[in-house]
Specification:
heterodimer; A: 207 residues; mainly alpha; 13 helices; 64% helix; B: 237 residues; alpha+beta; 8-stranded mixed sheet; 7-stranded antiparallel sheet; elongated
């Protein structure tokens, strides 16, 4: 029950423990993880604006497994690059539902990337995590990337759009806020109170 | 710099009223006497201090050793007593009337229309409107708000900036919430009202234009989390 235990810790405490060697997960472990994440999805949905996208169990558990492996690779520094690439299988969202379901776990991606970057900035793991961050813009708010992520899918869903903008404002992510379309949404959200919600954004508005 | 410490007899406690208003003075009492400290040489020029019936005066150094004036050998240490500010040591007691007073006229505290629009601190709206707003409002706007729901399906929202929703806005004097566009006819009466009905300051007094008011406990307010708004409901009997 490596994955479900890990996910449970991640959701409830933010402090996790992982196995000391690379592993694959049993089906029962994955089923338990899905049940945990579905329950968490229902809790999170209550605090999200509007009607959130449906829960996608396959994507949610895939995200949890990816994150578990990524945490392991931050710790296990002797894994070869080829093995790392084989073990850490990147994947992309195909729908707003995918974005939201993966975000249940991937919202911790900025903290993990920060940790990995602090240990070895030029490590291939950092490169891989950054590539994932580009693929999952909702979860990577707060990370400054080399490539501008494609957030079209987020803006196609009203709840995700609001969640994304709220997160950018909460994180005061200036890099993302400098995109014209995001700038416009932030301005609409903060209205005449930008000076209260995000005083520094006033400077970005005029750029 | 040395500090002057005075010792007076316990029976002379009331004389300390002369110096009660000197802010930095501290006092302590032992079995027989009262000690006063916090006096500098320049303070001691004050005639009120010089009028005190002092038994002994000492200089104390930073280590707490007591010296007689002009002497270099300490004669003791500053006693370890419960030092408190003199204005607390000698608390004021209001005089009590010999006979109960009678009121010739009763003045009603009224709200009157005011042309002045004040900054609103609270909004009274319906639960339905609040729930609709909570569905789509930005989280950053909710973060600054708290709300309480009444059993009449009304919601009092407090914080800043308040949402632009239909309802009645209130400004505040202390804990009294007054409809915007109104003000108390006698402004100083508000102090009496809040002192009488909210002396522990654990409530808001919500006034209306019809001279009615209701007390709302501050503990009834919860942060405006979207889940809290969604889960707010009134169970009809």
């Amino acid at each position: 029950m490596f994955l479900s235990g890990f996910t449970n810790e991640l959701i409830n405490t933010g402090r996790v423990s992982v196995a000391g060697s690379l592993i694959s997960f049993e089906e029962e472990d994955k089923r338990d993880t899905v049940a945990l994440l579905e329950n968490y999805y229902r809790q999170i949905a209550l605090d999200c604006p509007g009607t959130v996208p449906a829960f996608m169990p396959d994507v949610a558990v895939k995200a949890a497994a990816y994150f578990y492996s990524a945490v392991q690779l931050v710790i296990l520094r002797d894994v070869k690059n080829e093995a790392l690439l084989e073990y850490l299988q990147a994947f992309s969202p195909a729908s707003p539902e995918d974005h939201f379901s993966a975000d249940l776990v991937f919202n911790h991606l900025p903290a993990l990337l920060d940790l990995a970057f602090g240990l070895a900035p030029a490590d291939i793991l950092v490169t891989q995590l950054k590539q994932m961050a580009v693929q999952w813009p909702l979860s990577s708010v707060g990370i400054e990337l080399e490539t501008v992520p494609d957030d079209t899918m987020l803006f196609s869903h009203p709840a995700l759009q609001q969640l994304y903008i709220d997160r950018i404002i909460a994180q005061k992510d200036k890099w993302r806020a400098s995109s014209p379309h995001i700038k416009q949404y932030i301005t609409e959200t903060t209205g005449e109170y930008t000076h209260i919600f995000w005083p520094e954004f006033e400077d970005l508005k005029t750029v | 710099m040395k500090e002057i410490i005075l010792q007076i007899a316990g029976k002379d406690k009331t004389v300390l009223a002369l110096v009660r208003c000197i802010d930095k003075l501290m006092a302590a009492e032992d079995d027989h006497s009262i000690w006063i400290r916090g006096i500098t040489d320049s303070d001691y020029q004050d005639t009120a201090l010089q009028q005190l019936p002092v038994l002994h005066s000492f200089y104390a150094d930073a280590q707490g050793y007591l010296f007689r004036k002009g002497q270099i050998t300490p004669i003791g240490k500053v006693p370890e007593l419960n030092w408190i500010r003199l204005n607390k040591f000698l608390a004021v007691e209001l005089p009590v009337s010999l006979l109960p007073g009678t009121l010739d006229t009763v003045t009603t505290i009224k709200l009157i229309p005011s042309p002045r629009i004040r900054e609103s601190v609270a909004l009274l709206t319906s639960l339905e409107v609040w729930k609709q707003y909570g569905e789509t409002a930005s989280q950053i706007r909710l973060n600054n708000l708290v709300f309480a729901v009444s059993d009449q399906q009304q919601v009092l929202i407090m914080g800043s900036p308040l949402p632009s929703l239909p309802g009645k806005e209130f400004w505040a004097i202390d804990s009294l919430l007054i409809p915007n566009g109104y003000e108390p006819e006698i402004m100083m009466a508000v102090g009496f009202l809040t002192a009488m009905h909210n002396s522990s300051n654990n409530s808001y007094l919500l006034a209306d234009e019809n001279q009615r008011w209701q007390s709302i406990s501050k503990s009834s307010f919860v942060p405006a989390r979207r889940s809290a708004i969604r889960l707010s409901s009134i169970t009809q009997p």
